[in-house]
Structure formats: C-alpha cells, structure tokens
Amino acid sequence: MTALSGVDVVWRFRLAEDEGNESAWGLAYSTENGYSKSKESESTVTKDGSVVTPGATETTVTATTLYKIGSTQIDKLETAMDENKRVQIWRINTKEIGTGNDEGKFKAKYFEGYFTSFEETDSAENKVEYSLEWAIEGAGKNGFAALELDTSEGGDYEFKDTVKVETKA
Length: 169
Prior knowledge:
mainly beta, 8 strands, two-stranded antiparallel sheet
C-alpha cells in the first residue's frame, strides 16, 4: 500500500456554459488545491441528555496558483465570479486507473458550484499568487474522468467527464 502524493492529484476546471465548446483545463503553476466539507449542528438539551440535529453539509474547493504571464484562465475565473457563472470542477487521482467501461480514465470527484473568493497577492519578494475558492452545490459526485494532458446518482447533477460535450442534433 502506498500513500497518494499531492502531485498525483490534478484539478480541472471549466465554465458550465463552455462544456460544448472546450475541454476542461488546469490552472498553470498550481501550488495547492483541496476541498473541505463541514456542517453545523444544533444541540437541544433534554432530561435524558443532548439531542444533536445536524445541518446541511457545505463543501468548499480551494486553489492556490501562481500567475502565468500570457494566461487567460485567471481572467476567465474572475469574470465568472463577477457574473455568477457556474463552474465545473474535477479532482482527478492519476494513480487509480479505471477498468471496464472506465478503462483509460482515472478515479475522480466532480463538483459544480460558484466562485466565491478571489484574492491576488503581489509582493516585492515573491511571485504573483492567487487564492481561489468555490462554494459547491451538493457534495460532489464520484466517477472516472478522462485526462487530457494538453490542456449520477441522485442529487441535483450527475458526474460529468472533462472532455468536450458534443451536442446531439
């Protein structure tokens, strides 16, 4: 058994409105990505002890990346935030390869949500860095995704792949 290294996990992004026009893409010079889940709970004191009522799970995706000169991805994401555009996000584990119908694909988690935090830091001693955050609707879906190196069950959406979606006439 081997522990998974962070460098073996890649993230891909795409505006939902672009799924028929382009494949998902990664952020250049990404230094850190992740997702977290949390929920609040309410406790009611009773004569027999506390009764806990859990709230809804909230999922957040984060990314830290350096600015790549000439890249338009950061501009696209900032515009998506300003215009409340839905974003598709994939967390792809490149060490777990699918079999059968998923042959040639990699274990992945798919999210849909909205860009909620954009922070640029440019200090005199370091490279320009962006801290990004997305609020995810639902909890994400597990599946297998194709990974282009060049570039459901239940819930409110199904797992989608990273490749360009062809429209059917």
